Amino acid sequence: MGIMGFKQIAMAAGLALTGLGAGLGSVAAHAAPTPQVANAPAPAPQGAAAPAGVSNTAPTTAAATPPAAPASPLLAVDGAPGALPEAGIGQPTNGLFGLQPQVTRNGEFAHWMHNAILFPVITIISLFVLALLIWVMIRYRASRNPIPSKTSHNTAIEIIWTLLPVAILVLIALPSIGLLQAQFKPAPAGAVTLKAIGNQWYWTYQYPDNGGFEVTANMLKEKSEVTAGQRFRTDADGPRLLAADNRIVLPVGVPIRLITTANDVIHSWAVPAFWIKLDAIPGRLNETSFTIDRPGLYFGQCSELCGARHAYMPIAVEAVPPAQFAAWVRAKGGTMPGSKAPSSAVIPQPGAPGSAAEKAATDATDAATGPTENATVAAPTAPQGATNNPATGNAGQ
After folding, report:
1. 280 with 197: CB under 8 angstroms?
2. How far apart are CA 331 and CA 74, in angstroms?
3. H or E segment at 271?
4. Distance in angstroms (rounded) separating the CA atoms of residues 222 and 220
């Protein structure tokens, strides 16, 4: 009984420390530098501070679509509509105990389940076990019981402490299974597809349904960490270590189909306000879906230990109305799909039959050696030229 009580107390303490850590790990106060002019020319992207000889700046790829002119009103902050961070929404908050406010249906349900089921159950069990321990220490201490009891078995108590935890776990499992199923529900037709690719140490994003244009996001450094002329983080960009030079823009009220993968090691795309944490694994595509219910600016980080610069892979997502999202896509050189949206199609895993990589490898082989013939089909018999009879035996040798 004492061991079980210790475990429950440890679980409650861990939960409390987790909530406090989320609040205490928020942004420290910084002097706000002079805001940048919205239509000022955007400098080249830059990466997080790195050791000497190591570059964290995302390379410019040939497939990347050139951004619109810096003076475009659609590009107030490096390609994103110029929204300002809102205190307490979409980012860590100093002194906050608990989860961030949720802006997706799954997140709202998970938040309710945490506050209404999990936390009360853990608290009640921990207090009950603590009370039992205190009662045992006082009631059965050596000074009060010089001759200890030899009782070693109580059937009723053993049945209760076996069946009661089982009943509690079953009651918790019912909503948990529903939430787990909802988190991996496939996106419906017409969803906006966002492909997030993890790199050491920055994120690359693609919009396959909108012309396939590409956006690269690096962490913004502090003013003291950059040289003259380089862009640095301001309060308008977001909190320290979470502001990115390029925000990802997604529409509000439209299902989002998130696909993650990686180019080097395992990363994890996580935005707490969306209740999303999806691993990005090299050579594999992971998928989930969500719908953002509230416009705003939301921040996240890579949540998988991916190397020395793991802490410097922020995620900045700006949720805007669909019309504003369409204008942003066109400003980026992309297109809006018609009524027949391609997002309902199944994207095969890399290397699987029907995948782009498998088809490209097959085409390259055919180009080099010719098409592969089916060895299970017998080759047609060619007749001899003189007699027009089928060749048999050693004819023609």
Report:
1. yes
2. 7
3. strand 267-271
4. 7
Cα angle, residue 268 at apex, residues 267 and 272 outer, rounded to 5°: 155
Q: Rounded distance, CA 221 to CA 243, Å?
A: 9
pTM above 0.85, yes or no: no
**Count of C-beta atoms within a 10 Å radius of residue 302:** 26
Mean pLDDT of 167-177: 91
- Amino acid, single-letter form, for residue 375: A
Cα separation, 174 vs 395, in Å, equals 77
Neighbours of 108 (CB within 10 A): 14
Rounded CA Rg of the chain = 30
- Per-residue pLDDT of 182-197, as tens digits, reads 888 888 888 999 999 9
Helices 119-139 and 2-24 cross at an angle (nearest 10°) of 130
Separation of alpha carbons 361 and 349, rounded Å: 15
State the pairing for strand pair 286-291/255-262. antiparallel
For the chain, helix, strand, coil in percent to 5 are: 30, 15, 50
Residue 286, SS3 per DSSP = strand
CA distance 181 to 107: 13
